Amino acid sequence: MAGGLAALLDDIAAIARAAAASLDDVAAATGKATAKAAGVVVDDAAVTPRYVQGITPQRELPVVWKIARGSIINKLVIILPLIMLMSEFTPWLLTPLLMVGGLFLCFEGAEKIWEVIRGHSEAEKPPASFQGAAEEKQIVRGAVRTDLILSAEIMVISLSAVDGMGFWMRLISLIVVALVITVGVYGVVALIVKMDDVGLALARKPATEKLGTGIVKAMPVVMKVLSVVGVVAMLWVGGHILLVGMHDLGFHPIYEWVHHAETAVAAATGGAGAVLGWLTNTFFSAVLGLILGSVVVAVVAGVHAAMSGKGGKAAAAGEAGAPSEGGATGENDTGVMD
């Protein structure tokens, strides 16, 4: 009996050690995957606050929550099953899928830049607080749609960091990555959008009045900077995804040229070489993203123009074929039907 109990305790201890080792593996894999996706995470955190600009303070946190909930659904319900199936049966599809998402990011970033250049920036539109609930829903849908692309990039990049693990370990690690990143990103977003309220609360107290006033004055600048960073990050992340994807698919010249420029700058700048080399790669990735994104913007504008032209011609044809006022088709000169 004692021997059986000792054996049982040994088995329990072995299971506990295996479970602890598995948790350590999940933690390590989560950390590795999160670090590898850091660029897209920064993009996500920088892009989202601009969707909340102009919304009344009472609606800011509910809107952030709706976007965060949509982000969780994107990651766990839509993206995770898809990429797990692809990783098992069609792993060659992951790179093209990632590149499609990267091209969409380039398109969105380039579109924002061309809007500013043409003088049609979204900043000129009335904020959601002056538009109504329907416009707020549209803002949430737009943010969740952009998040779908960013979340796909995060999950696919994270998958590439744990692709050497077994199926279930990969699945658990990606679920943890999805939850950790979503809570982290939207926690930061909620903090950013409510900082002005925090500043107002501090400004009401004599001991913290100057600090609170400084925060309130700084937040419009911070939001503007984040908006610019979000657009640049779209181009940088999207361009880098396309750069690496082209290299992985066998088209090497652009990647090799950028890599050569990165290593040359790093070698020539001593102690700051790592940072300046990374900035060089980032700059050329953003330039590539702007070029390719601008091509997509031009194509989309052409398609819209063509569709509008067809619609206008159809309307004109309809007006031309309509009977004239006061005269029915088939009447003779006397006004009597033939």
UniProtKB/TrEMBL annotation:
InterPro entries the record matches: YedI
Keywords: Membrane, Transmembrane, Transmembrane helix
Residue ranges, annotated region (Disordered): 315-338
Membrane-crossing segments per the record: 76-94, 167-193, 214-237, 283-303
Biased composition (Low complexity): 315-326
Superkingdom of origin organism: Bacteria
Protein name: DNA repair protein MutK
Species of origin: Pseudoglutamicibacter albus
